[in-house]
Write a structure and sequence with these properties.
By secondary structure, the protein is α+β, with helices and mostly antiparallel strands. The protein is 29% helix and 27% strand.
């Protein structure tokens, strides 16, 4: 089996799939041969693009109902991984949703849909983040169980688990084309470093997933890649324990990071699959919106970056076998909650590939199947 893509999605799947396959092979008493699992990543390192540019937030109130169910299930997995290694992957940082007078209805909808949230007034929100301007906060909601997630640590754990379970991880290797052989029930894959065969291909290529499908001669899924801009700016008086603050109108978010303030205009600019770079006007917009929402006086931008978030039309992931092409499965479209949902979603996808049960409470996995 070949997994195309070495971001958090592909690497988590490689680890979960190899471990589950090992358990099934052991349970069979040697009558079931183990799978050969190879992950192919075009870049020189794993997690270079969207994974490496995440803001590392873990919040149950982000995304729709399916993303929230996956996040809750992923928390259990992450807590267990941290306990097993002795180094936690999650670290508490509350999240505060803010709404001005024009966005009270969306905030009320968010409160209704998320039992993890509690409504608070301006004074309570300022207790957590003192520089909030009254004009930016007619009402707020707090998720006190929100966390920072150690993305680098999680990626390394999955890398170690995947290789320990027998998966082969190859970097600096790009898929050029693929041909399905119905007689042999296998793919013949041509890469820039030679050819290989695989009984099944899993397309976990993030923003490049539709391009990978095209190289395999398969219809694309209609995925959309959207650029998100982030900057870290200096300002006096930033408190390291401040929460992640998000505008319910999706105009900005910010939180402390590395002695500065991480800010974003929450932009979603359509982009082709690429090594995304920030536009100067988007960085300026992030600072302007953060300044309008707070009393902070920004001095300079220390660094900025951009990443691509990839969505399906309904913003749910696409996970499962392609209905028109034998030997191909999808694991893509994880969008803006990919890091925090990947643990549960990878476990679900691995179980699906090996015809094993895995239940996520509150989730209908049929919703993710390609159509």
């Amino acid at each position: 089996m070949a997994i195309i893509g070495g971001g958090m999605a592909g690497l988590a799947l490689a680890a979960e799939l190899a471990e589950l396959d090992g358990r099934l092979a052991e349970r069979s008493g040697g009558t079931r041969p183990p799978l050969s699992i190879t992950l192919l990543e075009r870049e020189n390192q794993l997690g270079y693009h969207s994974t490496g540019r995440s803001i590392s937030a873990f919040c149950e109130s982000l995304g729709g109902p399916h993303q929230r169910a996956l996040t809750r299930a992923s928390r259990t997995i992450l807590d267990a991984m941290g306990a097993e290694s002795g180094t936690p992957l999650l670290h508490t940082r509350p999240m505060v949703w803010v709404a001005d007078e024009e966005h009270l209805d969306p905030l009320n909808d968010l409160l209704t849909a998320n039992p993890s949230l509690r409504a608070v007034d301006l004074a309570a929100a300022q207790t957590l983040c003192p520089p909030l301007r009254p004009s930016a906060v007619a009402r707020a909601a707090v998720e006190r169980t929100a966390q920072d997630i150690d993305v680098d640590g999680l990626l390394e754990r999955y890398r170690h688990r995947a290789t320990a379970a027998g998966a082969v991880l190859r970097t600096a290797i790009g898929l050029e084309s693929g041909t399905w052989d119905p007689a042999g029930s296998a793919w013949r894959l041509t890469t820039d470093r030679g050819e290989l065969q695989a009984a099944r291909v899993v397309n976990a290529a993030g923003p490049w997933a539709d391009a990978v499908a095209t190289r395999l001669g398969v219809a694309p899924a209609g995925l959309k890649s959207l650029r998100r801009t982030v900057a870290i700016a200096s300002a006096p008086g930033i408190g390291p324990a401040w929460p992640l603050v998000m505008d319910v109108g999706e105009r900005f978010y910010f939180r402390p990071q590395r002695g500065g303030l991480l800010v974003s205009p929450a932009d979603e600019t359509p982009s082709p699959p690429t090594d995304a770079v920030p536009a100067a006007q988007d960085v300026s917009l992030a600072l302007d919106r953060a300044a309008s929402a707070t009393t902070l006086e920004f001095q300079r931008v220390r660094t900025s970056w951009a990443g691509l978030r990839t969505f399906t039309a309904d913003r749910d992931p696409i996970v499962g076998p392609d209905p028109r092409q034998d030997g191909l499965s999808w694991f893509a479209g994880l969008g803006g909650t990919g890091i925090q949902t990947a643990p549960a979603l990878a476990r679900l996808a691995a179980a699906q590939l090996l015809d094993e049960p895995y239940n996520v409470p509150g989730l209908n996995p049929q919703a993710f199947l390609p159509r």
